[in-house]
Automatic annotation (TrEMBL):
GO terms for cellular component: membrane. This is Solute carrier 26 family protein. The keyword Transmembrane helix applies. InterPro entries: SLC26A/SulP_dom (IPR011547), SLC26A/SulP_fam (IPR001902), STAS_dom (IPR002645), STAS_dom_sf (IPR036513). It is found in: Membrane. NCBIfam families: sulP. Keywords: Membrane, Transmembrane, Transmembrane helix.
Length: 557
Protein backbone atom coordinates (compact mmCIF):
# COMPACT_ATOMS: atom_id res chain seq x y z
CA UNK A 1 0.00 0.00 0.00
CA UNK A 2 1.39 3.40 -0.96
CA UNK A 3 1.94 5.83 1.89
CA UNK A 4 -1.02 8.25 2.20
CA UNK A 5 -0.31 11.81 1.08
CA UNK A 6 -1.12 13.32 4.49
CA UNK A 7 1.39 11.10 6.31
CA UNK A 8 3.96 11.56 3.54
CA UNK A 9 3.74 15.34 3.98
CA UNK A 10 4.19 15.07 7.75
CA UNK A 11 7.34 12.99 7.29
CA UNK A 12 8.76 15.57 4.88
CA UNK A 13 7.43 18.61 6.73
CA UNK A 14 8.55 22.09 5.70
CA UNK A 15 8.92 24.84 8.26
CA UNK A 16 7.13 27.28 5.94
CA UNK A 17 3.91 25.33 6.50
CA UNK A 18 3.99 25.57 10.32
CA UNK A 19 2.34 28.98 10.80
CA UNK A 20 -0.64 28.16 8.55
CA UNK A 21 -1.17 24.72 10.11
CA UNK A 22 -1.06 26.01 13.71
CA UNK A 23 -3.35 28.96 12.98
CA UNK A 24 -5.77 26.72 11.11
CA UNK A 25 -5.71 24.09 13.87
CA UNK A 26 -6.49 26.58 16.65
CA UNK A 27 -9.25 28.27 14.65
CA UNK A 28 -10.82 25.00 13.53
CA UNK A 29 -10.78 23.80 17.14
CA UNK A 30 -12.60 26.96 18.24
CA UNK A 31 -15.14 26.35 15.48
CA UNK A 32 -15.63 22.63 16.04
CA UNK A 33 -16.10 22.60 19.83
CA UNK A 34 -19.60 24.12 19.79
CA UNK A 35 -20.34 22.63 16.37
CA UNK A 36 -19.53 19.05 17.38
CA UNK A 37 -21.44 19.45 20.63
CA UNK A 38 -24.42 20.61 18.59
CA UNK A 39 -24.08 17.59 16.31
CA UNK A 40 -23.89 15.31 19.36
CA UNK A 41 -27.19 16.84 20.47
CA UNK A 42 -28.53 16.37 16.93
CA UNK A 43 -27.51 12.70 16.96
CA UNK A 44 -29.44 12.21 20.19
CA UNK A 45 -26.45 11.53 22.47
CA UNK A 46 -24.77 13.74 25.07
CA UNK A 47 -23.37 16.87 23.41
CA UNK A 48 -19.91 16.02 24.75
CA UNK A 49 -20.02 12.77 22.74
CA UNK A 50 -19.47 14.94 19.66
CA UNK A 51 -16.09 15.91 21.10
CA UNK A 52 -15.30 12.36 22.13
CA UNK A 53 -15.95 11.16 18.59
CA UNK A 54 -13.51 13.62 17.05
CA UNK A 55 -10.48 12.73 19.21
CA UNK A 56 -9.47 9.42 17.56
CA UNK A 57 -10.67 10.65 14.15
CA UNK A 58 -8.09 13.40 13.92
CA UNK A 59 -5.14 11.16 14.73
CA UNK A 60 -6.28 8.20 12.62
CA UNK A 61 -7.10 10.29 9.56
CA UNK A 62 -3.71 11.99 9.80
CA UNK A 63 -2.09 8.54 9.51
CA UNK A 64 -4.40 6.95 6.93
CA UNK A 65 -6.18 9.70 5.00
CA UNK A 66 -5.19 10.77 1.50
CA UNK A 67 -6.15 14.45 1.85
CA UNK A 68 -3.80 16.83 3.68
CA UNK A 69 -6.63 19.32 4.24
CA UNK A 70 -9.83 17.41 5.01
CA UNK A 71 -11.32 17.91 8.48
CA UNK A 72 -12.96 14.69 9.66
CA UNK A 73 -15.32 14.26 12.58
CA UNK A 74 -19.01 14.72 13.42
CA UNK A 75 -21.07 16.39 10.73
CA UNK A 76 -24.72 17.16 10.21
CA UNK A 77 -25.82 14.44 7.80
CA UNK A 78 -24.46 11.43 9.64
CA UNK A 79 -25.63 12.92 12.94
CA UNK A 80 -29.24 13.28 11.87
CA UNK A 81 -29.16 9.86 10.16
CA UNK A 82 -27.90 8.37 13.43
CA UNK A 83 -30.81 9.88 15.32
CA UNK A 84 -33.33 8.60 12.75
CA UNK A 85 -31.85 5.09 12.83
CA UNK A 86 -31.60 4.70 16.59
CA UNK A 87 -34.78 6.43 17.78
CA UNK A 88 -37.11 3.50 16.99
CA UNK A 89 -34.75 0.99 18.67
CA UNK A 90 -33.74 2.78 21.85
CA UNK A 91 -35.65 2.53 25.12
CA UNK A 92 -37.39 5.88 25.75
CA UNK A 93 -35.13 7.77 28.12
CA UNK A 94 -32.92 4.70 28.47
CA UNK A 95 -29.14 4.45 28.63
CA UNK A 96 -28.95 2.15 25.62
CA UNK A 97 -29.13 5.06 23.16
CA UNK A 98 -25.44 5.90 23.49
CA UNK A 99 -24.54 2.21 23.22
CA UNK A 100 -26.55 1.87 20.01
CA UNK A 101 -24.89 5.00 18.58
CA UNK A 102 -21.43 3.58 19.31
CA UNK A 103 -22.45 0.23 17.85
CA UNK A 104 -23.70 1.97 14.72
CA UNK A 105 -20.32 3.69 14.35
CA UNK A 106 -18.56 0.32 14.56
CA UNK A 107 -20.89 -1.13 11.89
CA UNK A 108 -20.30 1.85 9.60
CA UNK A 109 -16.55 1.47 10.10
CA UNK A 110 -16.75 -2.24 9.27
CA UNK A 111 -18.66 -1.48 6.06
CA UNK A 112 -15.99 1.03 5.02
CA UNK A 113 -13.21 -1.47 5.68
CA UNK A 114 -15.06 -4.11 3.64
CA UNK A 115 -15.49 -1.57 0.86
CA UNK A 116 -11.77 -0.84 0.96
CA UNK A 117 -10.83 -4.52 0.76
CA UNK A 118 -13.19 -5.06 -2.20
CA UNK A 119 -12.18 -1.73 -3.82
CA UNK A 120 -15.69 -0.28 -3.95
CA UNK A 121 -14.60 3.36 -4.00
CA UNK A 122 -16.27 3.86 -7.37
CA UNK A 123 -19.73 3.47 -5.77
CA UNK A 124 -19.65 7.08 -4.64
CA UNK A 125 -20.04 8.03 -8.29
CA UNK A 126 -23.59 6.61 -8.24
CA UNK A 127 -24.75 9.77 -6.50
CA UNK A 128 -24.95 12.41 -9.21
CA UNK A 129 -24.75 16.15 -8.48
CA UNK A 130 -28.54 16.77 -8.78
CA UNK A 131 -29.24 13.88 -6.42
CA UNK A 132 -26.75 15.17 -3.85
CA UNK A 133 -28.14 18.71 -4.07
CA UNK A 134 -31.68 17.46 -3.53
CA UNK A 135 -30.66 15.04 -0.82
CA UNK A 136 -28.76 17.65 1.19
CA UNK A 137 -31.71 20.04 0.94
CA UNK A 138 -33.96 17.34 2.40
CA UNK A 139 -31.45 16.66 5.18
CA UNK A 140 -31.35 20.38 5.97
CA UNK A 141 -35.12 20.57 6.38
CA UNK A 142 -35.05 17.52 8.69
CA UNK A 143 -32.27 19.13 10.74
CA UNK A 144 -34.19 22.37 11.14
CA UNK A 145 -37.46 20.63 11.98
CA UNK A 146 -35.71 18.61 14.68
CA UNK A 147 -34.46 21.78 16.39
CA UNK A 148 -37.73 23.73 16.43
CA UNK A 149 -38.61 22.63 19.94
CA UNK A 150 -35.12 23.35 21.33
CA UNK A 151 -34.95 26.89 19.94
CA UNK A 152 -38.51 27.88 20.86
CA UNK A 153 -39.71 25.71 23.73
CA UNK A 154 -42.71 24.66 21.64
CA UNK A 155 -43.51 20.93 22.08
CA UNK A 156 -43.12 19.14 18.73
CA UNK A 157 -43.30 15.49 19.65
CA UNK A 158 -43.88 13.73 16.29
CA UNK A 159 -42.42 10.90 14.23
CA UNK A 160 -42.14 12.72 10.89
CA UNK A 161 -40.79 16.00 9.60
CA UNK A 162 -44.21 17.17 8.50
CA UNK A 163 -45.58 16.11 11.88
CA UNK A 164 -42.96 18.16 13.71
CA UNK A 165 -43.67 21.22 11.60
CA UNK A 166 -47.42 20.81 12.05
CA UNK A 167 -47.03 20.40 15.81
CA UNK A 168 -44.82 23.49 15.94
CA UNK A 169 -47.37 25.61 14.09
CA UNK A 170 -50.28 24.21 16.10
CA UNK A 171 -48.65 24.84 19.50
CA UNK A 172 -46.82 28.04 18.58
CA UNK A 173 -48.64 29.93 21.30
CA UNK A 174 -46.74 27.80 23.85
CA UNK A 175 -43.36 29.25 22.92
CA UNK A 176 -40.87 30.05 25.69
CA UNK A 177 -39.91 33.71 25.34
CA UNK A 178 -36.36 33.73 26.75
CA UNK A 179 -35.43 30.56 24.79
CA UNK A 180 -36.82 31.94 21.52
CA UNK A 181 -35.17 35.35 21.93
CA UNK A 182 -31.80 33.75 22.73
CA UNK A 183 -32.05 31.45 19.69
CA UNK A 184 -32.95 34.29 17.33
CA UNK A 185 -30.10 36.41 18.69
CA UNK A 186 -27.62 33.58 18.10
CA UNK A 187 -28.90 33.02 14.54
CA UNK A 188 -28.67 36.71 13.66
CA UNK A 189 -25.17 36.87 15.13
CA UNK A 190 -24.03 33.82 13.13
CA UNK A 191 -25.32 35.20 9.83
CA UNK A 192 -23.81 38.64 10.44
CA UNK A 193 -20.41 37.19 11.36
CA UNK A 194 -20.48 34.90 8.31
CA UNK A 195 -21.28 37.83 6.02
CA UNK A 196 -18.78 40.30 7.48
CA UNK A 197 -15.96 38.10 8.85
CA UNK A 198 -16.20 34.68 7.14
CA UNK A 199 -12.96 33.37 8.68
CA UNK A 200 -13.89 34.23 12.26
CA UNK A 201 -14.89 31.38 14.66
CA UNK A 202 -18.53 32.51 14.63
CA UNK A 203 -20.04 29.41 16.28
CA UNK A 204 -17.63 29.59 19.23
CA UNK A 205 -18.23 33.31 19.74
CA UNK A 206 -21.99 32.84 19.46
CA UNK A 207 -22.15 30.04 22.02
CA UNK A 208 -19.78 31.80 24.43
CA UNK A 209 -21.78 35.02 24.24
CA UNK A 210 -25.00 33.05 24.71
CA UNK A 211 -23.45 31.33 27.75
CA UNK A 212 -22.47 34.72 29.20
CA UNK A 213 -26.01 35.98 28.61
CA UNK A 214 -27.50 32.95 30.39
CA UNK A 215 -25.31 33.53 33.43
CA UNK A 216 -25.56 37.32 33.59
CA UNK A 217 -29.32 37.42 33.02
CA UNK A 218 -30.01 34.21 34.99
CA UNK A 219 -31.86 32.80 32.01
CA UNK A 220 -31.47 29.24 33.28
CA UNK A 221 -33.68 30.22 36.22
CA UNK A 222 -36.24 31.40 33.68
CA UNK A 223 -36.36 27.98 32.02
CA UNK A 224 -33.59 28.19 29.38
CA UNK A 225 -32.06 24.69 29.21
CA UNK A 226 -28.28 24.22 29.37
CA UNK A 227 -26.04 21.26 28.47
CA UNK A 228 -25.64 20.26 32.11
CA UNK A 229 -23.13 17.99 33.81
CA UNK A 230 -20.30 16.64 31.65
CA UNK A 231 -18.41 13.48 32.75
CA UNK A 232 -14.97 14.21 34.15
CA UNK A 233 -11.86 13.40 32.12
CA UNK A 234 -11.72 11.70 28.76
CA UNK A 235 -13.83 8.74 27.61
CA UNK A 236 -12.50 5.23 28.11
CA UNK A 237 -12.21 2.65 25.36
CA UNK A 238 -15.37 0.58 25.41
CA UNK A 239 -16.56 -2.19 23.09
CA UNK A 240 -20.38 -2.15 22.91
CA UNK A 241 -22.06 -5.48 23.59
CA UNK A 242 -22.88 -7.00 20.21
CA UNK A 243 -26.35 -8.54 20.11
CA UNK A 244 -27.81 -9.78 16.83
CA UNK A 245 -31.13 -8.33 17.93
CA UNK A 246 -29.45 -4.92 17.88
CA UNK A 247 -27.04 -5.41 14.99
CA UNK A 248 -29.56 -6.66 12.41
CA UNK A 249 -31.93 -3.65 12.42
CA UNK A 250 -28.96 -1.26 12.39
CA UNK A 251 -27.31 -2.80 9.31
CA UNK A 252 -29.54 -1.04 6.76
CA UNK A 253 -28.94 2.27 8.53
CA UNK A 254 -25.19 1.62 8.64
CA UNK A 255 -25.07 0.98 4.89
CA UNK A 256 -27.01 4.17 4.20
CA UNK A 257 -24.80 6.26 6.48
CA UNK A 258 -21.68 4.74 4.90
CA UNK A 259 -22.81 5.59 1.36
CA UNK A 260 -23.78 9.17 2.15
CA UNK A 261 -20.85 9.82 4.47
CA UNK A 262 -18.35 8.47 1.94
CA UNK A 263 -19.88 10.41 -0.94
CA UNK A 264 -19.73 13.66 1.02
CA UNK A 265 -16.17 12.88 2.13
CA UNK A 266 -14.87 12.14 -1.37
CA UNK A 267 -16.65 15.09 -3.01
CA UNK A 268 -15.22 17.51 -0.43
CA UNK A 269 -11.73 16.01 -0.66
CA UNK A 270 -11.77 16.11 -4.47
CA UNK A 271 -12.91 19.72 -4.51
CA UNK A 272 -9.97 20.89 -2.41
CA UNK A 273 -7.52 18.59 -4.20
CA UNK A 274 -8.51 20.16 -7.52
CA UNK A 275 -8.28 23.65 -6.05
CA UNK A 276 -4.81 23.13 -4.56
CA UNK A 277 -3.18 20.89 -7.14
CA UNK A 278 -2.92 17.43 -5.57
CA UNK A 279 -4.77 14.13 -5.84
CA UNK A 280 -6.66 11.98 -3.37
CA UNK A 281 -7.13 8.22 -3.39
CA UNK A 282 -10.85 7.38 -3.28
CA UNK A 283 -10.21 3.83 -2.12
CA UNK A 284 -7.76 4.96 0.59
CA UNK A 285 -10.52 7.21 1.90
CA UNK A 286 -12.62 4.09 2.56
CA UNK A 287 -9.87 2.69 4.78
CA UNK A 288 -9.42 5.99 6.60
CA UNK A 289 -13.16 6.45 7.19
CA UNK A 290 -13.47 2.86 8.35
CA UNK A 291 -10.72 3.33 10.92
CA UNK A 292 -12.02 6.70 12.19
CA UNK A 293 -15.55 5.33 12.65
CA UNK A 294 -14.27 2.30 14.53
CA UNK A 295 -12.25 4.70 16.69
CA UNK A 296 -15.36 6.84 17.28
CA UNK A 297 -17.37 3.75 18.23
CA UNK A 298 -14.75 2.59 20.72
CA UNK A 299 -14.63 6.09 22.26
CA UNK A 300 -18.42 6.11 22.87
CA UNK A 301 -19.10 8.37 19.90
CA UNK A 302 -21.32 7.98 16.84
CA UNK A 303 -20.83 7.70 13.04
CA UNK A 304 -18.75 10.48 11.52
CA UNK A 305 -17.53 11.67 8.15
CA UNK A 306 -15.91 14.94 7.05
CA UNK A 307 -16.95 18.55 7.53
CA UNK A 308 -16.99 20.84 4.53
CA UNK A 309 -17.29 23.98 6.66
CA UNK A 310 -14.27 23.13 8.83
CA UNK A 311 -12.26 22.15 5.74
CA UNK A 312 -13.12 25.49 4.11
CA UNK A 313 -12.03 27.33 7.27
CA UNK A 314 -8.71 25.49 7.47
CA UNK A 315 -8.00 26.12 3.80
CA UNK A 316 -8.77 29.83 4.16
CA UNK A 317 -6.22 30.05 6.99
CA UNK A 318 -3.51 28.37 4.93
CA UNK A 319 -3.26 24.80 6.26
CA UNK A 320 -0.98 22.57 4.21
CA UNK A 321 -0.92 19.26 6.11
CA UNK A 322 -2.88 17.23 8.65
CA UNK A 323 -0.76 18.78 11.40
CA UNK A 324 -3.64 21.25 11.71
CA UNK A 325 -5.88 18.36 12.83
CA UNK A 326 -3.37 17.33 15.50
CA UNK A 327 -3.24 20.92 16.77
CA UNK A 328 -7.05 21.01 16.88
CA UNK A 329 -7.14 17.67 18.73
CA UNK A 330 -4.71 18.85 21.42
CA UNK A 331 -6.86 21.97 21.85
CA UNK A 332 -10.04 19.89 22.26
CA UNK A 333 -8.33 17.62 24.84
CA UNK A 334 -7.28 20.68 26.80
CA UNK A 335 -10.83 22.01 26.79
CA UNK A 336 -12.26 18.65 27.92
CA UNK A 337 -9.76 18.42 30.75
CA UNK A 338 -9.84 21.98 32.05
CA UNK A 339 -12.99 23.74 30.80
CA UNK A 340 -15.81 21.30 31.55
CA UNK A 341 -17.66 23.83 33.75
CA UNK A 342 -17.86 26.24 30.82
CA UNK A 343 -19.08 23.53 28.43
CA UNK A 344 -21.78 22.46 30.88
CA UNK A 345 -23.26 25.98 30.81
CA UNK A 346 -23.70 26.07 27.03
CA UNK A 347 -27.43 26.78 26.41
CA UNK A 348 -29.28 24.14 24.41
CA UNK A 349 -31.05 26.89 22.46
CA UNK A 350 -27.71 28.18 21.17
CA UNK A 351 -26.67 24.70 20.03
CA UNK A 352 -30.04 24.28 18.31
CA UNK A 353 -29.58 27.62 16.57
CA UNK A 354 -26.12 26.51 15.45
CA UNK A 355 -27.63 23.35 13.88
CA UNK A 356 -30.25 25.46 12.06
CA UNK A 357 -27.52 27.80 10.85
CA UNK A 358 -25.51 24.85 9.51
CA UNK A 359 -28.65 23.46 7.87
CA UNK A 360 -29.34 26.66 5.95
CA UNK A 361 -25.92 26.34 4.34
CA UNK A 362 -26.85 22.89 3.01
CA UNK A 363 -29.74 24.26 0.95
CA UNK A 364 -28.12 25.60 -2.21
CA UNK A 365 -30.91 27.49 -3.93
CA UNK A 366 -28.46 28.81 -6.52
CA UNK A 367 -27.67 25.21 -7.48
CA UNK A 368 -31.37 24.42 -7.94
CA UNK A 369 -31.65 27.45 -10.24
CA UNK A 370 -28.53 26.35 -12.13
CA UNK A 371 -29.96 22.85 -12.61
CA UNK A 372 -33.22 24.30 -13.90
CA UNK A 373 -31.39 26.45 -16.44
CA UNK A 374 -29.12 23.60 -17.48
CA UNK A 375 -31.67 20.79 -17.90
CA UNK A 376 -35.19 20.46 -16.51
CA UNK A 377 -34.80 16.71 -15.93
CA UNK A 378 -31.82 17.26 -13.62
CA UNK A 379 -33.78 19.88 -11.69
CA UNK A 380 -36.66 17.40 -11.40
CA UNK A 381 -34.28 14.75 -10.03
CA UNK A 382 -33.11 17.13 -7.31
CA UNK A 383 -36.65 18.13 -6.33
CA UNK A 384 -37.92 14.54 -6.33
CA UNK A 385 -35.01 13.49 -4.13
CA UNK A 386 -35.77 16.28 -1.65
CA UNK A 387 -39.45 15.35 -1.52
CA UNK A 388 -38.57 11.67 -1.23
CA UNK A 389 -36.37 12.32 1.78
CA UNK A 390 -39.06 14.42 3.45
CA UNK A 391 -41.98 12.13 2.61
CA UNK A 392 -40.27 8.95 3.84
CA UNK A 393 -37.17 9.11 5.99
CA UNK A 394 -33.45 9.51 5.45
CA UNK A 395 -32.70 5.84 4.88
CA UNK A 396 -35.48 5.41 2.34
CA UNK A 397 -34.37 8.75 0.90
CA UNK A 398 -30.90 7.32 0.30
CA UNK A 399 -32.42 4.38 -1.56
CA UNK A 400 -34.54 6.80 -3.62
CA UNK A 401 -31.49 8.95 -4.36
CA UNK A 402 -29.32 6.04 -5.49
CA UNK A 403 -32.19 4.52 -7.47
CA UNK A 404 -32.85 7.81 -9.24
CA UNK A 405 -29.15 8.17 -10.06
CA UNK A 406 -29.06 4.66 -11.52
CA UNK A 407 -32.34 5.16 -13.40
CA UNK A 408 -31.06 8.45 -14.82
CA UNK A 409 -27.84 6.77 -15.95
CA UNK A 410 -29.78 3.78 -17.31
CA UNK A 411 -32.11 6.10 -19.25
CA UNK A 412 -29.15 7.86 -20.85
CA UNK A 413 -27.67 4.53 -21.92
CA UNK A 414 -30.99 3.05 -23.02
CA UNK A 415 -32.06 6.10 -25.05
CA UNK A 416 -28.88 7.88 -26.17
CA UNK A 417 -28.42 10.45 -28.88
CA UNK A 418 -27.92 9.14 -32.43
CA UNK A 419 -27.12 10.77 -35.75
CA UNK A 420 -26.96 10.29 -39.49
CA UNK A 421 -23.70 11.94 -40.54
CA UNK A 422 -23.13 14.24 -43.49
CA UNK A 423 -20.77 16.89 -44.77
CA UNK A 424 -21.09 20.63 -44.14
CA UNK A 425 -19.58 23.11 -46.57
CA UNK A 426 -16.54 24.80 -45.05
CA UNK A 427 -16.49 22.54 -42.01
CA UNK A 428 -14.05 19.64 -41.71
CA UNK A 429 -15.26 16.18 -40.73
CA UNK A 430 -18.69 14.53 -40.61
CA UNK A 431 -21.55 15.97 -38.57
CA UNK A 432 -25.12 15.29 -37.46
CA UNK A 433 -27.31 16.34 -40.38
CA UNK A 434 -30.02 17.45 -37.94
CA UNK A 435 -27.66 20.12 -36.60
CA UNK A 436 -26.95 21.71 -39.99
CA UNK A 437 -29.53 22.78 -42.56
CA UNK A 438 -27.01 22.64 -45.42
CA UNK A 439 -25.55 19.24 -44.50
CA UNK A 440 -25.39 16.74 -47.39
CA UNK A 441 -24.99 12.98 -47.48
CA UNK A 442 -23.54 10.66 -50.12
CA UNK A 443 -26.36 9.10 -52.17
CA UNK A 444 -26.70 5.41 -51.43
CA UNK A 445 -24.60 5.62 -48.25
CA UNK A 446 -25.91 5.98 -44.68
CA UNK A 447 -23.28 6.72 -42.03
CA UNK A 448 -24.99 6.17 -38.69
CA UNK A 449 -23.61 6.99 -35.24
CA UNK A 450 -25.05 5.67 -31.96
CA UNK A 451 -23.70 7.56 -28.94
CA UNK A 452 -23.55 4.77 -26.34
CA UNK A 453 -22.26 1.23 -25.92
CA UNK A 454 -24.79 -1.28 -27.25
CA UNK A 455 -26.09 -3.62 -24.57
CA UNK A 456 -29.21 -5.50 -23.53
CA UNK A 457 -30.79 -2.23 -22.34
CA UNK A 458 -30.81 -0.52 -25.72
CA UNK A 459 -30.57 -3.19 -28.43
CA UNK A 460 -34.17 -2.73 -29.56
CA UNK A 461 -33.83 1.03 -29.45
CA UNK A 462 -30.66 0.85 -31.55
CA UNK A 463 -32.14 -1.48 -34.14
CA UNK A 464 -35.36 0.52 -34.49
CA UNK A 465 -33.55 3.84 -34.92
CA UNK A 466 -30.95 2.37 -37.29
CA UNK A 467 -33.69 0.97 -39.54
CA UNK A 468 -35.57 4.29 -39.31
CA UNK A 469 -32.45 6.10 -40.53
CA UNK A 470 -32.34 3.81 -43.57
CA UNK A 471 -36.05 4.20 -44.29
CA UNK A 472 -35.76 8.01 -44.10
CA UNK A 473 -33.45 8.07 -47.12
CA UNK A 474 -35.14 9.14 -50.34
CA UNK A 475 -32.69 7.27 -52.58
CA UNK A 476 -32.05 3.56 -52.39
CA UNK A 477 -29.49 2.68 -49.70
CA UNK A 478 -26.58 0.57 -50.90
CA UNK A 479 -24.39 0.68 -47.79
CA UNK A 480 -25.08 1.13 -44.09
CA UNK A 481 -21.94 2.11 -42.16
CA UNK A 482 -22.12 2.04 -38.37
CA UNK A 483 -19.74 4.59 -36.86
CA UNK A 484 -18.65 2.88 -33.61
CA UNK A 485 -16.60 5.72 -32.10
CA UNK A 486 -18.95 5.81 -29.07
CA UNK A 487 -19.39 2.02 -28.90
CA UNK A 488 -16.55 0.81 -26.72
CA UNK A 489 -18.07 -2.64 -26.19
CA UNK A 490 -21.09 -4.87 -26.77
CA UNK A 491 -22.65 -7.67 -24.76
CA UNK A 492 -23.94 -11.00 -26.09
CA UNK A 493 -27.47 -9.62 -26.48
CA UNK A 494 -26.11 -6.82 -28.67
CA UNK A 495 -24.01 -9.31 -30.66
CA UNK A 496 -27.10 -11.41 -31.43
CA UNK A 497 -29.01 -8.27 -32.43
CA UNK A 498 -26.23 -7.22 -34.82
CA UNK A 499 -26.40 -10.67 -36.42
CA UNK A 500 -30.14 -10.13 -36.98
CA UNK A 501 -29.56 -6.62 -38.33
CA UNK A 502 -26.88 -7.92 -40.69
CA UNK A 503 -29.27 -10.57 -42.00
CA UNK A 504 -32.11 -8.09 -42.51
CA UNK A 505 -29.84 -5.69 -44.39
CA UNK A 506 -28.51 -8.53 -46.54
CA UNK A 507 -32.09 -9.49 -47.42
CA UNK A 508 -32.60 -5.91 -48.62
CA UNK A 509 -29.37 -5.93 -50.62
CA UNK A 510 -27.66 -3.48 -48.25
CA UNK A 511 -24.00 -3.89 -47.27
CA UNK A 512 -23.41 -3.66 -43.52
CA UNK A 513 -20.02 -2.15 -42.57
CA UNK A 514 -18.35 -0.83 -39.42
CA UNK A 515 -16.03 2.17 -39.05
CA UNK A 516 -13.77 3.51 -36.28
CA UNK A 517 -13.67 0.14 -34.53
CA UNK A 518 -11.55 0.10 -31.38
CA UNK A 519 -9.38 -2.89 -30.50
CA UNK A 520 -11.54 -3.98 -27.56
CA UNK A 521 -14.63 -3.95 -29.73
CA UNK A 522 -12.78 -5.72 -32.54
CA UNK A 523 -11.83 -8.51 -30.12
CA UNK A 524 -15.47 -8.90 -29.09
CA UNK A 525 -16.55 -9.01 -32.74
CA UNK A 526 -13.99 -11.73 -33.33
CA UNK A 527 -15.05 -13.83 -30.33
CA UNK A 528 -18.75 -13.52 -31.16
CA UNK A 529 -18.26 -14.49 -34.81
CA UNK A 530 -19.44 -11.11 -36.08
CA UNK A 531 -16.09 -10.31 -37.65
CA UNK A 532 -16.32 -13.31 -39.94
CA UNK A 533 -20.03 -12.70 -40.62
CA UNK A 534 -19.58 -9.06 -41.58
CA UNK A 535 -16.25 -9.71 -43.26
CA UNK A 536 -12.95 -8.31 -42.14
CA UNK A 537 -12.81 -6.24 -45.31
CA UNK A 538 -15.97 -4.38 -44.17
CA UNK A 539 -14.48 -3.33 -40.81
CA UNK A 540 -12.69 0.00 -41.29
CA UNK A 541 -10.40 1.95 -38.95
CA UNK A 542 -11.72 5.37 -40.08
CA UNK A 543 -14.72 6.94 -41.76
CA UNK A 544 -12.51 8.00 -44.67
CA UNK A 545 -11.49 4.40 -45.43
CA UNK A 546 -15.11 3.25 -45.13
CA UNK A 547 -16.25 5.89 -47.63
CA UNK A 548 -13.40 4.94 -49.94
CA UNK A 549 -14.56 1.31 -49.74
CA UNK A 550 -18.09 2.36 -50.71
CA UNK A 551 -16.85 4.51 -53.60
CA UNK A 552 -14.52 1.75 -54.87
CA UNK A 553 -17.41 -0.72 -54.94
CA UNK A 554 -19.42 1.72 -57.06
CA UNK A 555 -16.42 2.38 -59.29
CA UNK A 556 -15.94 -1.29 -60.14
CA UNK A 557 -19.62 -2.14 -60.56
Amino acid sequence: MEMPLGLKQLLSYQSAWLRGDILAGLTVAAYLIPQCMAYGELAGVQPVAGLWAILPAMVIYTLLGSSPQLSVGPESTTAVMTAVAIAPLATPGGSDYAILAALLALLVGGIYILGYLTRLGFLADLLSKPILIGYMAGVAVIMMAGQLSKVSGVPTDADTVLGEIQAFVTHLSQYHGPTLILSLAVLVFLFVVQARWPNAPGPLLAVLLATVAVNVLRLDQLGVAVVGNIPAGLPQLNIPNLSMNEVTPLMAAAIGIAVVGYSDNVLTARAFATRNGYKIDANQELLALGAVNIGAGLMQGFPISSSGSRTVLGNALGNKTQLFSLVAMVTVVGVLLFMRPVLSLFPQAALGALVIYAATRLIEMSEFVRLLRFRSTEFALAVITTLGVLATDLLVGIAIAISLSVVDLFARVARPHDAVLGQVLGLAGWHDIDDWDDATTIPGLVIYRYDAPICFANVENFKRRAMAAIEAEQERVEWFVLNTEAIAEIDITAADMLVELHQELCNQGIVFALARVKQDLYSQLKRSGLRDLIGNERIYPTLKTAIRGFEDRYRFK
